[in-house]
Amino acid sequence: MKTTHIILVQLLIWFIPAQAAIIELKPGDSIQEAVNQAKDGDTLKLLPGIYQEHEIIIRKPLILIGVDFPTIDAMDKGNVLIIAAENVHIEGLRIINTGKSNLDDSAGIKFFDSINCSVVNNLLEQTFFGLHFSNSSNLTIKNNKLISKAEREFQTGNGIHLWKCKDSFIENNFIQGHRDGIYLEFVTNTESNHNMVLENKRYGLHFMFSHDNSYYKNTFKRNGAGVAVMYTRNVLMKENIFEENWGASAYGILLKDITDSEVVGNIFRKNTIGIYMEGSSRTLFQENEFNQNGWALKLMASCDQNTFEANNFIGNTFDISTNGSVVLNTLTKNYWDKYEGYDLNKDRIGDIPYRPINLFSVIVEKIPSAVILWRSFLVTLLDRMEKVIPSITPENMIDNSPKMNPYDFRTANS
């Protein structure tokens, strides 16, 4: 983080001309007029107070810095800042009350065709979209707080929205109450880390057609669903926390048609479904903790060549369920708290294989209302018989090397 900040400052210094001026504005002054009169590389310093203005257009390298978070109030009209330029830095502003329109995606700060820009340490409240970027690159989006109090999904846009962008950092932001916390579409080579994303209406983080990205050490809590990764390849998902994403169809992660990715060192805790995946291939799931979820993993029959290795499954109602009998994935060396085998040779590996799919999970997958029979004596009896003589559950969904004791991953997120 420090390295990123140093690089950012160095870049700003590099691009600021030696004769750059500092222009102070006070409430009542026009920000747009100051922008028009400023020269490339000048700094506009906004003193504390309220500035009622919207549709402020910036087309030159500038620095906007607020002193004690001056407020720019758009009075429910359109966008606040619209930027199409290189080397623009915005810091320390409080931006409120944009318009609410899906036609122009009204936003607190909107960038088009921009390069080497940064948005740092700003507060955005009651904006439709918070930060909106299109066709831009080399962006730094850091330490911002974005809060929407919309009650329904259609009443708000996304907190941080990137479309057709690349080579950017989204770091240490707080995002609450938007449609998607962070939305990435046609985005490449971008990192999202240390963000707190909670109580957003749809997804905490949403990938669409966005390859070669990574997100790590984020927390996704009480969103409609934690993260959705769709139609994407080569994504690193590492050391995140997916927590309390409850609801009829809520997930920690939804993986749909993704390939060649890694899900490593994450914690899935108290979600309706830890991971739901379909049409996904060649992905490694390793050193993850699945704890107290309804379903730890829903693995649809359309998935293949995925490997689940050295994960902990503890306290979940169902460890795994599926919708087919063909198994084209590998389970190995996982810890299953429901395993009842033994270890006579003391190598810490169970001597008999473990079948993580029980009969009742198959029944519930086909007849969801049957869940009311969970924990009944009849279900327990049928499940025991199925484990002895598998007839309905997929015979090849099996871990031949179950661990006798849970792993101690000791991740930074634990």
Automatic annotation (TrEMBL):
Pathway: Protein modification; protein ubiquitination. SUPFAM superfamilies: Pectin lyase-like (SSF51126). InterPro entries: NosD_copper_fam, NosD_dom, Para_beta_helix_rpt-2, PbH1, Pectin_lyas_fold, Pectin_lyase_fold/virulence, SCF-Subunits/Alg-Epimerases. The keyword Repeat applies. It holds the Pfam family NosD. Residues 156-341 form the Periplasmic copper-binding protein NosD beta helix domain. Keywords: Repeat, Ubl conjugation pathway. The keyword DNA repair does not apply. This is Nitrous oxidase accessory protein. The lineage of its organism: Bacteria, Pseudomonadati, Bacteroidota, Cytophagia, Cytophagales.
